[in-house]
Amino acid sequence: MRVLTIGGLPTSILQDAWWMDADLGTGSSGTSGAAGIGTGDESAARRTPPPAGVMLAALVALADLLFFDHPPGLSVAIFLIAFGIAATIAVPVRGRRLILAWAILTLAALPVAVALTPLSITIAIIGALAACASICDTESPLKGSLLRGILRLAASVPVRGASDLVSAMTRQDQAKGSLGQSARRAGGAWAMPLVAGGGFVLLLASANPILGQWIEALVPAPSDPERILRRAGFWLIASALIWPLVAALSSGRLPALHPELASALRLVRPEEAAGEAAGIGASDFGFNPVSIGNALILFNALFAVQTALDLTYLWGGADLPDGMTYAGYAHRGAYPLVATALLAGAFALISRPFTDRSPLLRPLLILWVAQNVLLVVSALLRLDLYVTAYGLTHLRLAAGIWMALVAGGLCLTLWQIAGRHGNRWLLLRVIVMAGAVLYGCAFVNAPGIVAKVNIGRAEAGMRVDRAYVCALGPMAAAEIAAHDRRALQPFCIGLARPPVPEIDGWRDWGLRKALIRRYLLAQDHAGAREERP
């Protein structure tokens, strides 16, 4: 093979010119560096990754073993780790990107190992997408490429499987003739191995009872057509969900977004904000420096009235009008004020680029956002007053967390306006803040907190909705059992007590369920010993 040499170029550029060499499997160190996807690891370059079909079949079979006809739990964390191992084998990447991928998968697996909740499942899904994006994307994740990679993978999930199947059939038809000829070739190549292999499987299953049980579990009896159809549907859905990640890992690159979708999801850089604002005129939805200035003056005046009322009644303790209680005043305004603050934040994002074009807009915008921060703090106080009057519920706990997030986002908006940062700067920090808060919430036993607060109210002689507390489920059973032991009388009088958390096996095991179950069983044993004469 002749080696192309370009005189006058540095050695590093010559080594990086792997794409000019037709023989990518052998050759100089520059070739191996390319196969290693820029890592320079020759051993990784020489390693041949498994075919995408083999990886897909292995992951789908593992999903069948872990999830089909089994309640999920620890199995979700096991599948994430298995996906990480498959990704490590498929893409010969080393260094920071590999460390980042495994760190993401570990953090994503922890919440589902503690407790399976909609939030922990969402974190696991985002973690798998982020790990795949960190391996396939060569850009720095600190520059926002990780977020773009997650969006690109998520957007490809609904259509990637069908589009790749159609493309593969079309390529095969063009390269080898008609589809029927391709099927005949495949049948001739695989008929004998599959038939002979099936015979050996039957012989081995008859000789090994453990292997026979495994086969019976994987392959249902022909007399159960409903289960066969359900399993076929499970495999089809699992393949459609897993294939986009496998395809990205196999090709070593992320899927491309549709141009319109890419434009909609693009994060605006600070240097682009002024240019985009300059292109917005009076005809573009009415946003221009004059209309935004008038809107900010009007909005500040309206919010000043609401701020004055809150300072008078909520913070100052003034007497409310006849027929109105603090609880009613709090409940009526808590959620609408948060919605108002969200709309205000969106308006601040739109109007921020115009602040560089008028010296009066920036102070007006800062004053208005500051009033919105006070508005959200007042909403939190309203919520606290309502919880004090009527007790804590799941919705009120979630509303409190949501209000705190909105207040934090508005504070970041103030920082953005004062520091003259772009919307990209703000959006990335809001995403990090919200992600950190929601990740922490995945480790919180919300039913236990709600039950503990309401039981404390009951012990203090306050009104409590006992039916609601007793219907919180197994995750609240420990708090109710602790009350029964302290008070020497059941909390759920005439009501069904939350059951002990059930753990059918290692697949649905969860740390929180295991700890609560262990505590309740210990309490039952202690009570049984005390009842003995």
Number of helical regions: 22
The largest pleated sheet is described as:
none
Helix content: over 70%
Shape: flat
Order of helices and strands: HHHHHHHHHHHHHHHHHHHHHH
Q: Whole-number average pLDDT?
A: 75
| End-to-end gap | 94 Å
Portion of residues in beta strands equals under 5%
Radius of gyration: 30 Å
Class of secondary structure makeup: mainly alpha
Q: Return residue spans where pLDDT drops below 50 for at least 5 consecutive residues.
A: 11-46, 267-284
Overall strand count: 0
List the helices and strands and how they pair.
Layout: H1 11-16, H2 29-35, H3 42-46, H4 52-67, H5 74-90, H6 96-114, H7 118-136, H8 145-176, H9 179-207, H10 209-218, H11 225-251, H12 259-265, H13 270-278, H14 289-315, H15 326-351, H16 361-390, H17 394-419, H18 423-441, H19 446-459, H20 466-470, H21 477-487, H22 511-531
Helix pairs in contact: 4-5, 4-11, 5-6, 5-7, 6-7, 7-8, 8-11, 9-10, 14-16, 15-16, 15-17, 16-17, 17-18, 19-21, 21-22
